[in-house]
Amino acid sequence: MSALHIPHVRSHNVAAHSFLWLKFRCPAARNVLIRTIRQITVCAMFQTFEDLSDPSCGAPHAALLRAELTRRGLDGFLIPRADAHQGEYVPPHDCRLQWLTGFTGSAGMAAVLGRDAAIFVDGRYTIQVRDQVDMSVFPAQHLVNEPVTDWLATHLQPGQKLGIDAMLHTVREVRRLEDVCREAGAELVKLSDNPLDAVWEDRPEPPLGAVELYPTINSGKDATQKIAEIQEILRGKKADACVLTQPDSIAWLFNIRGSDVGHTPLPLSFATLPADGKPALHIDGRKLSNSVRDSLSELTDIVEPSAFMSGLETLGKTGASVLIDPSLAGVGIADAITAAGGSLIEAQDPILLPKAVKNTVELEGARAAHIRDAAAYINFLCWFDEEAPKGNLDEIGAAEKLEDFRRQTGALKDISFDTISGAGPNGAICHYRVSRSSNLKIPVGKPYLIDSGGQYIDGTTDITRTLAVGSMTDEMKRHYTLVLKGHIAISTAKFPAGTTGAQLDTLARIDLWKAGLDFDHGTGHGVGVYLGVHEGPQRIAKTGTQPLEAGMILSNEPGYYPTGEYGIRLENLEIVTEPRDIPGGERPMHGFETITLVPMDLRLIDGALLTKAERDWLNTYHARVYDSIGPLVGEKERAWLENATRAI
């Protein structure tokens, strides 16, 4: 484990920081420490580059957990990368999978039995997991192709008891687990507490990020109106109430933002919303200033999280029909309602779709944020083209400089995720997180991949560019151009109402498929407005079942990653447009409006592989980039941009 490095720390704080470092040796606890110190340092970065993973923790931590399971009379336990909100963004307090195994990815699960164990990750993390986890303790399995249920079916023995934390597994997931346990002759035991927490000695405290009101000038709709609209949806579904578990849904509904998780302005909380009457917001009161409490009290009853489960029981005792999302709500929530006499209506979180379909104010804010972000990004690209060919620039230096250019806008609230700064073989790791131990010099003669974004009060950005450093081989240009062709196919797609992301996903892959290539992640995810950079239910992927609607924002990011060599990904954000008539057509068609305004790297394009229509798209896009962003940057940067957007 490397020594703690904190940039820009005042010298008189060094002794105190050293003492705290001795106290917080656990990677998750260290992350809390780093975030706390960042608040009191001068010009500290939003991103840190410490090693958060320790593969050596697997064996001793698994032993501690097994001993606790034996004490409780359990034969096994499942540890998901999840908290009670079932969201992607998990605070250090709930990073149980990381504490147990060392794995820091955003999706995964571990299974621990008496003698056997395994970790399950999806295709984004097949390389990362082998670097971060002791494979002799937790052999890696593919989360989709070799799911935990298949593993349990071959490892569970009759009479065994498999434990789960009832708040960390969804209703839908538990049904599958119950089926596999039944078939194996085993028993699934739903626990109200977590045995791992009992042996996690230096577990960080729960976050207490301050809550702020989100102005109507940015949200486009006040919270009272939103509550009324969601209540109308509930009445239409014959539901007496719904339980909200997703912090981004709650933030959107009440027009609030928080700071409980890294890079995403979420206030961790639960809420119950009746079809008629005042909702209840279960949130730690220490997060609320007097003024915020006063404003929220006009909308909702503010209740401590400790009273959440008893509130569900009270609701159940009235015989209420309660809507829950079975793919998002922990089974403990469902059980509390039904055990008390209530009934369940299983349906999608009623806020997901209204939140995903942005209003005109939100869309204008997103466009403004992307223009601001593009100017900062082009300043970075101009600087990068001067520095990278010298051979001294590394992954951390590039990430820090890009964040600095975004900070210079004066509007940056945070980055929207840890910048993926991948040089050479690190670029082939889809969700690579650069650390001080993995940091590479950016080599001359290979593409460099950088995926990053900013959080602004009016919008969330997410952009990936793959950049040429020195001369590129014909093969590199071919791979880049095949990815670009898929990107253009999505950007120019026309599709009728009711089309899903799964139906569009093939467009991004077809040219790669023809060449025998592919990528192991979705083509696009939804994006929020000063909320999560990953937002559902919309997505462009093989599993994208939600019909796309006008006003949704999605990413468009096909890629290709030859293992151990380099990575290529090209990402813009797109707004789904209103259906429009097509000359000679019979039906109006949706399309996409590209709101990311940063050039593609012409040095990596093999023009012979582009059709005339694709070349026209690229030239038109680049002309728009120059016209929109050229006036916002300095003379040197404008000259660079003019060359970078020249017609081909």
UniProtKB/TrEMBL annotation:
<dbReference type="InterPro" id="IPR050422">
    <property type="entry name" value="X-Pro_aminopeptidase_P"/>
</dbReference>
<dbReference type="InterPro" id="IPR000994">
    <property type="entry name" value="Pept_M24"/>
</dbReference>
<keyword id="KW-0378">Hydrolase</keyword>
<feature type="domain" description="Peptidase M24 C-terminal">
    <location>
        <begin position="589"/>
        <end position="648"/>
    </location>
</feature>
<keyword id="KW-0031">Aminopeptidase</keyword>
<dbReference type="Pfam" id="PF00557">
    <property type="entry name" value="Peptidase_M24"/>
</dbReference>
<dbReference type="InterPro" id="IPR036005">
    <property type="entry name" value="Creatinase/aminopeptidase-like"/>
</dbReference>
<dbReference type="InterPro" id="IPR032416">
    <property type="entry name" value="Peptidase_M24_C"/>
</dbReference>
<dbReference type="InterPro" id="IPR000587">
    <property type="entry name" value="Creatinase_N"/>
</dbReference>
<dbReference type="InterPro" id="IPR029149">
    <property type="entry name" value="Creatin/AminoP/Spt16_N"/>
</dbReference>
<dbReference type="Pfam" id="PF01321">
    <property type="entry name" value="Creatinase_N"/>
</dbReference>
<comment type="similarity">
    <text>Belongs to the peptidase M24B family.</text>
</comment>
<dbReference type="GO" id="GO:0004177">
    <property type="term" value="F:aminopeptidase activity"/>
</dbReference>
<dbReference type="Pfam" id="PF16188">
    <property type="entry name" value="Peptidase_M24_C"/>
</dbReference>
<protein>
    <submittedName>
        <fullName>Xaa-Pro aminopeptidase</fullName>
    </submittedName>
</protein>
<dbReference type="Pfam" id="PF16189">
    <property type="entry name" value="Creatinase_N_2"/>
</dbReference>
<feature type="domain" description="Creatinase N-terminal">
    <location>
        <begin position="65"/>
        <end position="192"/>
    </location>
</feature>
<feature type="domain" description="Peptidase M24">
    <location>
        <begin position="366"/>
        <end position="578"/>
    </location>
</feature>
<keyword id="KW-0645">Protease</keyword>
<dbReference type="InterPro" id="IPR033740">
    <property type="entry name" value="Pept_M24B"/>
</dbReference>
<keyword id="KW-0479">Metal-binding</keyword>
